[in-house]
Design goal:
By secondary structure, the chain is mainly α. It has one domain (about 15-195, about 220-450): MFS general substrate transporter like domains (Growth Hormone, Chain: A, Up-down Bundle). The chain has 21 helices and no strands. It has helices at about 5-35, 40-45, 50-75, 80-100, 105-115, 120-130, 135-145, 145-170, 170-175, 180, 185-195, 220-225, 225-255, 260-295, 300-320, 325-340, 340-355, 360-395, 405-415, 415-435, 435-450. Helix 13 (about 225-255) runs antiparallel to helix 14 and helix 13 packs antiparallel against helix 20 (about 415-435).
Length: about 450
């Protein structure tokens, strides 16, 4: 390509990445609203933590099930169109969440949000793989994934502010609904912008040009016979267990155990779970690309080290006494900053070991296991543990009625499952680092042979 063509291609790539970043931001903004307003919903409809966790579980199961066919569609259809349709669907159902009149109507609306959001990551990651070469993918994915912490940050921050400001005006029964309405318009604008993304040629940024060639056999089996993908899939399940459990209940945890009001609990959650991710993803993306140049297994080893370091930091944060918010924020924030390094080490590795025509399928399979085996259990497991420990505290005190004090003890004790899971995750990533070099070599060999045919 000449200089003008190269310049145009770079502009198109940056525009696409900017839109993808916006879409991913709203993806997690909409998803996190429920966590931000969990306490007013729970109290209004007199729900248990298990019931609130179950809503997250069903959301995740729908997300995972729909994601597989959407991933296959991303490998054959126009990815910009897929994104546009999916963003429009989840934005409409986010508005429907605000119209819910009881637990089950909200339950159904959140299912609709899950259906729409399922198309975001397979199509988005597939596009990035064809817009940026392997040496720059971790940084590009880090920008795309910035939508996760920024979405969580603004969702917690703004939802808390909105509820506090509108409660005196419309009452507690209506104020928690307003954040859902506020999220709808930006989503619909991004759905329109997605249609302006120019579809890149599949495999356009690879060293070896293989056009539309692919190997024979089931696309799913071709992905699953790659050893590294199994380690990545297991890691995804463990990582998402923690992600969903902690994100879903952190505002409630800070409110109950540390005695914070809704707005302050959400503000602290916004910083410790969201803002820190910006540093984790940007610095992690640069470090991951550097590690990849040093060694084929560099990215996976970096991810393992980050999660290993996260484990004691999270444990110490949860051990802080009630009201010690400064130490909690430093320890939890630093740990969760490292939590985000996972994305920029594992996601590019998928593209390093999977052929271009199967990357949407690979991400869909990964997300299916990530959500069904991990995220689906995270919220319900933590909710059930919270209810169990709350009941145990009530029994130990000789009481016969459940109080908010017992619920605070229960949720605090339940949260200690997070560092245990992160330690297991570090071990899995280390195991994956032992197979990735061989799988990368196999893919490059096949692509070299396919390009010469």
């Amino acid at each position: 390509m000449n200089d003008d063509q190269n310049s145009q291609a770079r502009r198109q790539a940056w525009f696409a990445l900017a839109v993808l970043f916006g879409i991913n931001t709203m993806n997690f903004f909409d998803r996190q609203i429920l966590a931000a307003v969990t306490e007013p919903i729970r109290k209004q409809w007199m729900l248990s933590d298990t019931a609130m966790g179950l809503m997250g579980t069903v959301f995740v199961l729908i997300y995972a099930a729909v994601g597989v066919p959407l991933g296959r569609w991303a490998d054959s259809g126009r990815r910009a169109k897929i994104l546009s349709v999916c963003v429009a669907i989840w934005s409409v159902f986010t508005a429907a969440s605000g119209l819910a009149w009881n637990y089950w109507s909200l339950f159904v609306a959140r299912i609709g949000v899950g259906v729409g959001e399922a198309g975001c990551s397979p199509a988005g990651n597939s596009l990035i793989g064809d817009l940026y070469p392997a040496s720059k993918r971790a940084r590009a994915i880090s920008i795309f994934m910035l939508g996760l912490p920024i979405g969580i940050f603004f969702s917690n921050l703004l939802s808390g502010i909105i509820v506090e400001k509108f409660t005196p005006i419309v009452g507690a029964a209506w104020s928690w609904k307003i954040p859902f309405f506020a999220a709808t318009i930006p989503g619909l604008i991004l759905a329109a912008l997605a249609l302006r993304i120019i579809e890149p040629t599949r495999g356009a940024t690879e060293t070896f040009k293989i056009a539309d060639q692919s190997r024979e056999g089931s696309p799913y089996w071709r992905v699953l016979r790659i050893p590294t993908m199994w380690w990545i899939i297991i890691s995804g399940a463990l990582h998402n267990f923690n992600a969903y459990a902690v994100n879903a209940f952190m505002p409630a945890y800070l409110g109950r155990y540390h005695g914070l009001g809704l707005q302050k609990a959400n503000t602290i959650s916004a910083f410790t779970l969201g803002a820190v991710g910006v540093v984790g993803l940007l610095a992690g993306g640069v470090a991951a690309d550097w590690a990849r140049k040093k060694s084929p297994s560099g990215r996976m080893l970096l991810g393992a080290l980050a999660l290993l370091t996260l484990t004691p930091l999270t444990y110490l944060a949860l051990n802080r006494p009630k009201g010690d918010m400064v130490s909690f924020m430093i320890l939890m924030g630093t740990g969760w900053m490292l939590f985000y390094v996972y994305y920029v080490t594992v996601y590019p590795t998928v593209q390093d070991v999977v052929e271009p025509n199967l990357r949407g399928t690979a991400m869909a399979l990964y997300f299916f296991a990530m959500y069904v085996l991990g995220g689906a259990f995270g919220t319900t497991a933590l909710g059930m543990l919270s209810d169990y420990f709350a009941k145990s505290a009530m029994t130990a005190a000789g009481a016969t009625a459940m109080t908010e004090a017992f619920r605070a003890v229960g949720l605090h004790n339940a949260f200690f499952i997070a560092p245990v899971i992160s330690l297991l995750l570090a071990a899995v990533l280390f195991a994956g680092s032992r197979t990735v070099a061989g799988d990368m070599e196999k893919l490059q060999k096949w692509m070299r042979e396919a390009a010469n045919k």
